[in-house]
Amino acid sequence: MQRKKISVIGSGYLGTQIAMLTAYTGYEVKVFDSREGAFGILDKTGLGFIYDIEMVYYRDFQDPKERPTEALREKIERGELGVKSGKGFYSYLNPEYLSPDFLNPSE
Fold it and tell me: Domain total for the chain?
């Protein structure tokens, strides 16, 4: 599921904020009760680590669907590794999900 969300952002099909907001309607918020949603959790985990895990799946199963997304690879190449680098899907020190209006964007 994370792979699909990352692909949507990477493709430019939806704006980043719209894609992140749609992640709030899914599994992550219900299970983790997490304001930051899927992308904030990925940032905290570390995008390099996520990439490494996906590469293990890809190598083990040899299934093209398991290959990490280009969007994730490009973020890593730019040094956007998540919280530890100061930028991932969000920019840190002030990630967008901390804004009181994040879940209620203006029209």
Answer: 1
Coil vs helix vs strand at 91:
strand
Pull the structure tokens for residue 23. Answer: 């992640």
pTM: 0.66
CATH of the domain at 36: 1.10.1040.10
Task: Say how far apart CA 36 and CA 104 lie, in whole Å.
Answer: 14
- 32's tokens: 């983790």
- State the Cα torsion 39-100-91-76 to the nearest 10°: 10
Over residues 62-87, the pLDDT tens digits come to 988 888 988 899 999 999 999 999 99
Q: Facing residues of 82 across strands?
A: 87
By three-state DSSP, how is residue 6 classified?
Answer: helix
Residue-by-residue DSSP string for 18-61: HHHHHHTTSHHHHHH--TTHHHHHHHHH-HHHHHHHHHHHHHHH
